[in-house]
Fold:
Amino acid sequence: MHVASDGQPPDPAKLGRSSWYFLHAVAEGYPLRPSESDRATMTTFLSSFAKVYPCSYCAADFREHLADHPPGVQDRYHLVRWMCEAHNAVNLKLDKPLADCEALAAKWKVAAAAAAAAASAKP
Structure:
C-alpha cells in the first residue's frame, strides 16, 4: 500500500473523490470515434489503474467490476456511461446518492452523432 509523506496511508474518502474526478475527466476526454488503438489503450489503462490503485480493497472491488462489466470503449458516450455506472456501483455500497448516467452520457451521444454526420458529409 502507498504511504504518504507523513507516513500514513491515503485517506480512502479523499483518494476516492480525487480518483473519480480524474476517471470521469478521462472518460469525457475520450474520442467520440476512437480508433482500435484508443480502445486498446483505454482498456489497458483501466486494468492497470485497478492493479496499482493505492487502496487495496478499492482496487480489488474495481477489478471485480471490470471483470463483471467490461468497459464500454466503443465511443465516448459508452465510456462516460460505463464510468458513471461503475461510480454508482461504489456509491450504492457506500449508501451515497446515485447519478443519472443516461443524462450524463446523453450529451456525448448527441456529439457522437454530430461527429459521424460531419465525417460522412466530407467529400
